[in-house]
Amino acid sequence: MRFRFILLTFLLLTGNTFAQDKIDFVLKGQIFNTESDTMRLLKNDGQQNSIVSTIQLDEKGFFEKEITVPVKDYYILSLEDNQSVNVIVENSDTIKIYGDGKNLFFHTNIINSPSSTAMLEFLRVSAQYKQALDSANRYLQANQDKKKEIQQQFQTTYQNFLSQRKLFIRNHPNSPALAAAVSSVNIEQEFSTYESIVKSLQENFSESPTVQRLYKEYLSNKAKMEAKMPIAPGEKAKEIALPNPEGDTVRLSDYKGKVVLLDFWAAWCGPCRRENPNVVKLYKQYHDQGFEVFSVSLDRTKDKWVQAIEQDGLIWEAHVSDLKFWQSPAAKAYKVSSIPFTVLIDREGNVIQTNLRGAALENKLKSIFD
């Protein structure tokens, strides 16, 4: 298992944007424990930072200045030693900033800009996670013989970060602060989460050149994802008719009118078995609202297949397999090259999305049923 993380950097859209009114606002506060006489408010144009305003600090670090910015967007407040915090300018309200010049990122309070505060708090969580990840990777490089043990230990840290990110997204559904979460999302494995974040930003902060860039990147990523999909969203799901453990033929089309998770798995597949508790939880949560699971096993022996169903508590009825391993016609029809592999199907039998699992599956079902 390889853990990847890129700490957020704000890349702003280059080129022309539609005409907008400039914004005048007051920036005031105090930065103590600093030798800087000035601060700079910066804007990134996608290539480099440009200075929007230079702000003077008095001998005690107090400052106050009326600033004009060209557009609602994400800005960078930087000391002379390049320590910085991000500020979201949404309107003409006065923004107050009080910080410790010895450690500006971790010891700054932003007042009267809830979005800026929320973004800074999550970026701190992200930075701490990245520090833990870097430490784990360094230890792993020096102790390759303990790879499995190290990865298992880090799972707790990783899951804790995912929980904090989930809470952040849930608590700020319409906030420009959501941009802070974009770079922490694995686009291939968590596309539903990524999509919901970017669409929320586009809906609620579309004036921002940063958001325009993120949305443009989203459209490009979506096209790439769909091009790689064995079956694209909107296509009719292909029929599957295979025997269940009792030998009776069960058809995927039997479940038309339900939202169906077509789940390719096997008893011998470790990642499949680890994902099963999440699928069971979601089945219990949404079954009464019309959610079904149609499990296609790529096992080779009936005993191991049935035993895994019982061990993992897979309580839905639709379990089928021809016990032909990778040669199963169903797997070939859906171009399954690795498992777990899922296809979420709507009530009309059309594909919603493929390869959803974990938090991404949970978020998609929540958007459908809640």
In short:
The chain is α+β, with helices and mostly antiparallel strands. The protein contains 8 helices and 15 strands.
Task: Summarize the structure in words.
With 370 residues, this protein is α+β, with helices and mostly antiparallel strands. Helices cover 36% and strands 24% of the residues. A 5-stranded mixed β-sheet has the order 13-12-11-14-15, with helices on one face. A 4-stranded mixed β-sheet has the order 4-1-7-8. A 4-stranded antiparallel β-sheet has the order 3-2-5-6. Strand 7 and strand 8 (108-111) form a beta hairpin. Mean pLDDT is 91; it is low at 1-19.
List keywords for this structure.
370 residues; alpha+beta; five-stranded mixed sheet; disordered N terminus
